[in-house]
Every structure is written in structure tokens, then in C-alpha cells.
Specification:
three-stranded antiparallel sheet, 1 helix, single chain, flat, mainly beta
């Protein structure tokens, strides 16, 4: 399973408004991921950290147990936005340096907290397919 190391976040703002962010990190691949040149999707979730930072359950023990479940304790909603995403492949390298420079975070969103962090997902293309069905309303009388 790919491993993320050396992650760093920088946020620039203008007055009380968000401007842009820079995120960088290294992704280290296993021998199998390198030999099969598996493609990975990178996704980033910007979160605020308030006085009662939400608890998270995240499973990182392989494809069949992947999950990310925030338990909101403050009911204020700490999710700011999804940031840019892209696909990468090892192409024979055991690690890649990834950086997203000057990503526009959100438009007209005030910085009302002082602490922020980014949750980084690096997911292989071999994850299971997922989809919602249509919604059905059944009226019991």
C-alpha cells in the first residue's frame, strides 16, 4: 500500500478571506505497485481545526478496509472544501514528490478559525466500485 510522508500545508489569505494553498508530500510505493505500475488517484480534503476537533476513524490496512468516517462532535461542519486531485503512477520509481502550488481553495470563504489541515487520500485504481441506487419512498398506511 502506498505510504504518504513529509506532508506540508501552507495557506495564503487576503484579509479575512482564503486565497490559495500549497500542499506537498512524498508518496512511497511497494514493490508490487511499482512492478505493476498501478495508477493512483490523489484527493485532498481541507479541514478546519476548532477547539473540539472532530474525531476520525480511518482504516489504512489495504484495499478492502479503506474508510474515512468523521464523527462530528461540534456540529459546526469542519469540512472547508475538496482541493485539486490528479492521477499518478510509479513508472519505475519507488517514490514521487507531489506538490499542488497555489490551489484556489474556495471563493469568498472567510477564515473564521486559526488552524487548518489537509487530509490526503492516495487511492489505487484497484479499489472496489461504488454507487448509489435510486431513492425509493414507500408510504406505509
Amino acid at each position: 500500500m502506498a505510504e504518504i510522508k513529509n506532508q506540508s500545508l501552507k495557506i495564503e489569505k487576503s484579509g479575512d478571506m482564503f486565497e490559495c494553498a500549497s500542499v506537498s508530500f512524498d508518496v512511497y510505493f511497494t514493490e508490487r505497485e511499482m512492478s505493476e505500475n498501478i495508477q493512483f488517484g490523489i484527493f485532498m480534503l481541507l479541514m478546519e481545526r476548532d477547539e473540539e476537533f472532530e474525531k476520525y476513524h480511518n482504516s489504512t490496512n489495504g484495499v478492502f478496509s479503506f474508510s474515512f468516517s468523521p464523527f462530528n462532535l461540534t456540529n459546526t461542519g469542519n469540512h472547508i472544501c475538496w482541493m485539486a486531485n490528479k492521477s499518478v503512477q510509479p513508472n519505475g520509481a519507488n517514490n514521487l514528490k507531489i506538490s499542488f502550488e497555489n490551489e484556489v481553495i474556495t471563493q469568498q470563504e472567510p477564515c473564521d478559525q486559526s488552524k487548518y489541515r489537509v487530509y490526503i487520500f492516495v487511492m489505487p485504481e484497484v479499489l472496489c466500485g461504488q454507487a448509489w441506487t435510486n431513492e425509493v419512498c414507500v408510504n406505509y398506511k
